Write the structure tokens for this entry.
Amino acid sequence: MKKITLSLYILLFTSMQAQISNVVPNSQSTANAGVSDMQRWSAFANPAALSLLEEAEAGLAFENRYMLSELSTKSIDFALPTKYFNTGISASHFGFATYHELMVGVGFARDFSSRFSFGVEFNYFSTYFAESNRYSGIFFPQIGLQTRLSPSIHLGFSVFNPFQSHIVYEQNIKRLPSIFSLGGSYFFSDALVGRIQVDKEISSNYRFAAGIEYTMLERLQFKAGVEDAGFLVPSLGFGVITGRLRLDLNTGLHPILGLVSSAAVRYRFHSR
């Protein structure tokens, strides 16, 4: 009975939010509107944001959907700046014993002047089905751009799985979403930023997201937003920055399926 319930939850989640693959963690930006966020980078977000890092950093994240332990995503990443380009390594896992997904990626990015950055990430995605007792996987790229039109206006664009790669196993097909994302950030002040984003998965409806982030005393950050992918999902978040450590807590409330919560921690290493 529990296996049937989990299968229904995964089916509902996939159909209602088809723009988001289960194994891809949400960004820590408000309302998951991080494609134009040039202040931080996280696993499988816009790879162009890698170019802005000046010090090595590592991150851990955990996301739970609808208070079911089986519907959880765990991710880890590490980024290293170099003389010619910045490099990032990411890994993410979703699922439970009889079905799970794994994705690993290596990204490269460079900042061309202070206005434009470009990044590309090469990912490997695999699934495991207990019925067949086997793993099946594919390679696919992710491409990202970010630009500063002015000190107050930042734009971002990314393409996830642009060639519509998919897994074929036995008589079944596991389709990985192909997602085009476009977003902007507007800085009302150094402390207050607004973000908007639209995502389009080739075979699904648009997802719209908007929100604000307010930073107090350069240490505390409050986030509020809303996204619409057929249902309005309000979200709230809180961030704490202490020295080289940053902690983010975010929640979203789906009107039918329930609560989505996430926690992430990042650490910046000292430069030599």
